[in-house]
Amino acid sequence: MIRKVMAGVDVKLGIRETLQKIDQVYAAKSPTSNAPKPLLVAVSKTKPIELILDAYSVGQRHFGENYVQELVEKANDERILEQCKDIRWHFIGHLQSNKINKILNLPNLHMIQTVHSTKLAEGLNKAWEKLKTEHPETQAKLNVLVQINTSGEDEKNGVQPGDAVELYRYVLERCPNLSCDGVMTIGRFGHDYSTGPNPDFGTLMKCHEQICCTFERDPAEVQVSMGMSDDFVQAIEEGSTIVRVGSSIFGARAKKPANA
């Protein structure tokens, strides 16, 4: 169930301040860089519809959700459908193959950021082909990113960095209904930047470079999704083109009780 509005959360201010930081960091990048200005995906998981409407009212269009059922509820909410006709949903959580159809049938689905295996890619490809057959107005391809487990943590999903090129190749060559737009990582939480750059960001950028070299792609055209509320500034400095920011905009998520 989506929780009620949190007291004291100024979503509009959060959006403005986050976009201002993105502008500042992007402006400070090397003038020789032709990377696009980073896209802000506002991560609205566990947040109520009212806060999404607030963010949308000041121009935010891209929103990220982690849980299938919650995204189903929000994408089909009457207020969202009536007041947010240009909203773009990004699914940024773990997607199981048996939940594919629930996600792909949603209105205003923009991207699946977490393609972590050939099995999932194949399932998405077949399901999108079927959807296009049943609904000819469906866009030609589904936007996806290859998720890479840069931290090596067992609880994190994603293909291993050494296998990133081959998964990208599979999507590119074997999944004609998918548009493989780039790479994504979650990375290890709580990196101490006083010790130096985040190694997970460095690993993802190496995968990005390998993919661009292997498939002769312009690096500026291959998206890099990394960085959240605590480190999106550093992520942009390292080369991120999509940042996924939640608590800086919507406030901290309530922790689950210990007995939950």
Question: In words, what does this structure look like?
Answer:
- Belongs to the pyridoxal phosphate-binding protein YggS/PROSC family.
- This protein has 260 residues and is an alpha/beta fold.
- The chain has one domain: TIM Barrel.
- 39% of the residues lie in helices and 15% in strands.
- The chain contains ten helices and eight strands.
- The chain has helices spanning 11-28, 49-57, 68-75, 78-83, 100-104, 118-134, 164-174, 199-214, 232-238, 247-250, and strands spanning 39-43, 62-65, 88-91, 109-115, 142-147, 178-184, 223-225, 242-245.
- It has an eight-stranded parallel beta sheet.
- The longest helix has 18 residues, at 11-28.
Question: How do the strands and helices of this protein lay out in sequence?
Answer:
Layout: H1 11-28, E1 39-43, H2 49-57, E2 62-65, H3 68-75, H4 78-83, E3 88-91, H5 100-104, E4 109-115, H6 118-134, E5 142-147, H7 164-174, E6 178-184, H8 199-214, E7 223-225, H9 232-238, E8 242-245, H10 247-250
Helix pairs in contact: 1-9
